[in-house]
Design goal:
By secondary structure, the chain is an alpha+beta fold. The protein folds into two domains: 153 residues, no CATH class; 44 residues, no CATH class. The strands form two sheets. Strands 1, 2, 3, 4, 5, 6 and 7 form a seven-stranded antiparallel beta sheet that branches. The longest helix has 19 residues. It starts with a strand and ends with a helix.
Length: 214
């Protein structure tokens, strides 16, 4: 079976929707999936790799040395977004269109505004063989890498799932409760109020009452 990723989109900042074609015995099926498995950090980073392209193609910025360095960095160099870019832009999806020899990609994302609001928008369809875009090859490589991460996601490469629910405490022979086997609970405590803060000032100390009655 031959699988080709056609689109992928992050949902709720944690999950993935994706579409692909599956071809077997000369029969091709188009399939769409919405998964509730958390995305792996490698997949999230693959989306982030497209942020510099997203900025340049939508003319949010001219080609700066900072953006150029992010796009053309060596393969053995970690991809680290500068804080000003990381806080302002996010890529959330791609959609691939066109024939094999004339393919392009539309990148979806959003920009955080100074007002605290955000605006979502897409790039125009950017052809991989467009000679007017100087980073066409790097764009193609970044999209191919993202597609490979989506395939690994389909194959079970997920992020850590957060389990929210109730715990059924077991009683031991001494009557004290114990956690179910294999369950660990981390407790974070913060001091917000002291006993004096929450004590009713008009409440009479019980020990004084007892002493008076004696």
């Amino acid at each position: 079976m031959t699988i080709k990723i056609q689109n992928a989109k992050i949902r709720s900042r944690l999950f993935l929707s994706y579409g692909y074609t599956a071809k077997e015995n000369e029969v091709e099926n188009k399939i769409k999936q919405d998964s509730d498995a958390p995305i792996h950090e490698d997949l999230e980073r693959a989306f982030d790799n497209l942020i510099p392209h997203f900025i340049i193609i939508t003319e949010e910025s001219e080609v700066t040395e900072k953006l150029k360095r992010l796009i053309t960095r060596p393969d053995n160099e970690d991809f680290i977004l500068p804080e000003d870019i990381e806080k302002k832009y996010k890529v959330t999806g791609i959609s691939i269109s066109g024939s094999e020899d004339n393919q392009g990609v539309t990148i979806s994302g959003y920009k955080n505004l100074n007002t605290g609001k955000s605006v979502s928008f897409d790039t125009p369809n950017q052809k991989f063989d467009d000679e007017d875009y100087e980073f066409s090859q790097e764009l193609y490589d970044a999209v191919e890498h993202l597609k490979s991460e989506v395939l690994e996601y389909m194959d079970g490469k997920h992020g850590t799932r957060m389990v929210v629910g109730t715990l059924d405490f077991n009683d031991n022979e001494d009557g004290a409760f114990q956690l179910p086997s294999g369950v660990t609970v981390e407790v974070s405590m913060s001091k917000t109020e002291t006993d004096d803060d929450i004590m009713d000032p008009d409440f009479e100390d019980l020990s004084d009452v007892i002493n008076d009655e004696e």
